[in-house]
Each structure stands twice: as structure tokens, then as C-alpha cells.
Predict the 3D structure of the following.
Amino acid sequence: MKLLVILGPTASGKTKLAIEVAKRINGAIISADSRQVYRDMDIGTGKDLDDYGDIPHFLIDIRNAGETYHVAQYQDDFHQALQTLQQQRKQPILCGGTGLYIQSVLQPFEYSFVPVDPILRHTLDPLSTDTLLQTLHAFPIPSGFHADTRTRKRLIRAIEIATWCLHHPTPAKSHPRITAQLFGVNPPLELRRQRITERLQQRLENGLLTEVQTLLDRGIPPEKLLYYGLEYKYATQYLRGEFDYDVFFARLNTAIHRFAKRQMTYFRKMEKDGLKIHWLPLKTIQEMADEVVRNFNK
């Protein structure tokens, strides 16, 4: 069964489109959102579960807030959800804005399952880039592993993988290849900016700060909420008194705009990596859904 993918930056309307398409083709939605996996992080991640109605959805609320979740876990969870939908004879629709998650199941990263090693990362973090490169080059490079050394973060991850493979000489976990058709939603820049700001205002009115305070009151460490980024990072800083409300709103609003830009940059990278995305012209949700259904399996 071919996978239908609907992707786009934040506030693009991709989820509403996926729901509309699902209604027409006996579909179910598999989320590709790195933060919607966490329970009780609803307003800040924009789950909007009421919008789904009777459309089945997967990989939302599968981890407790405060836990960590990485791409290898997502790959396993995705394939489990996909198998369930195949058994139910429902059309799977992968929808989200986390390009890494989408690409990881369409073009599997063979070594992404290697677990994070916090102690090793703590040891490597103070080292210079040159020293990190020398450290990486001292390891035997695992077969099929192409180290990405473009940033310090990726360089440290490469050392982490090489270290793990040195002590665990087992083949990488693999999943079956997937045939997919990708559709993208990308409103004009000014409209996207308007939607982002209006949505942030709405989320604050709906209790975003109360949601974050509740998480803190439950004992979730502030450092963990800072790690989740965007709404949870800046709301935590505001609630800790690091800046006033106006500064909080301005910084968070700017950060979300920058995040949307980074999402689009990643989608363009996916295209360069060979994943063809059919970018939909901006129309009503119903008209875009018509186009998706018309072109899917064409």
C-alpha cells in the first residue's frame, strides 16, 4: 500500500488538509510531529484533537511529558502503526512538519537507532571542533556509515555512533522500504507570518502559560521544558521571571517564524535528497483535498 504524505511548515494548514483527505479515502493519520508525541503538551504543540472527529490517528500522546524521544523510536512506532493500518485496510496518511521524522521512514537512516549517550556527550562537548574531528578519525568507521561533520552537534553524534558500534558489532536495524507520494503545503510568506502570530495569540488565550505552569508544578524539570523548545522554552523562561510578557511574546513569536523557515529549508533538503514533493497551490482546504485525491496514485 502506497503511503500518502502531507507536509508543511507550522501554521500551514497541513493537518486540516490531511483530515479532509482522510475522510474521502478511508484514511487514517500517522503524525510526524516531534512534540505531539508527549502527553499533556496539548496547547503548545497544537494537537487540536477535536478536529480529527472519527478519523483514526497515531503517534500522538505516546510518551509522558518529561521523557525523551528520538528518531529511531519514531521509526519503530511508525512501522507498527503502518502495519496496523494495513491490517485494517485503511489508507495511511503521514502528516506533520518534522522533516527528519518523515525522511527517516522514507529514506531510513541505518544508524539512527543507536541510543544517545549523555555521559559521552558531556565529555565531548567542551572539546574543540578540531579535536572532535581527530577523535572521530581515530575510530574504525562502521560499514555503510557516512559521518556528517558539518556541525558540532552532528560531529558529536557521529562519534557517539562510532563508539557504540565499536562495542556492539551487530548489523543495523532495518525496516522495509516504503513507496510514498508527497504533497506539500506552503502558504505565501506574509500569510504564514500572519497565521503564526494569530495562532500564538490564540494559544495564549487558550491557556498556554497555565499548561506550562502545570507541567512545572508536576515536577517536570525546567531544563526538560527548555529542551522541548519554542512555546515550552519561552513560557518556562517567562514563568521563571527571566523577562516580562512583552519580551516573552516578541521572542517566542520571532522564534516560531524562524522555526518555520528552518522547516522549509529541511523540506528543500529532502527534495535534493531525491524525495519529490508536489507543492499544492494555495486554495481552500476542500479544493486542495480534491487535488491530493485526484493526483494520488495517478
In short: Residues 95 and 123 are 37 Å apart (CA to CA). Strands lie at 3-7, 27-32, 57-58, 91-96, 180-184, 277-279.
